[in-house]
Amino acid sequence: MLDELKNRLGEEIERLTHELQVVLPEAIKKAVEHGDLRENSEYKAALERQQFIQARLNHLTMRAGELSKIDLSQIPADRVGFGSRVTVTDMRTREQEVFTLAFGDFIDKDNLDSGQISMASPLGQQLMGKKKGDKVSIQLPRGERKLHVKEVVTLPQMLDKAETA
To answer: CA 157, CA 123: separation in Å to the nearest integer?
Structure first.
């Protein structure tokens, strides 16, 4: 999971860097050739896109630095943490759900039904550090939701299984 995130991050950084260094300068040059820059919407749009890409690249570079600092040996093997797959049962409805904790930036937006939740979300924050058998309570606008942690598969456990397979 960590390598996948690093690869996705690297690909986006590479794509945005290419746009910033190649595509946008060409668009700006073409817009400048049209004359008066005060009333040139193509020029303004290109500059706005350039500012957006620079801000996004700064953010992604910071995230890449954070990812490179993650020490898998420091992620607990028996508690919910980054990358953990957690099975919970709603104590009221008895429905089971499975969540995978991830950084919000890296949740697969093309597959919102994947069960990924941000570690920064209220549910993610409540699940962090929990063990099998623990209970969590989340206050929602429609009332309190109580969950029972049925199973925890941590990132170190997943990596151990992958290495032995």
So the answer is: 22
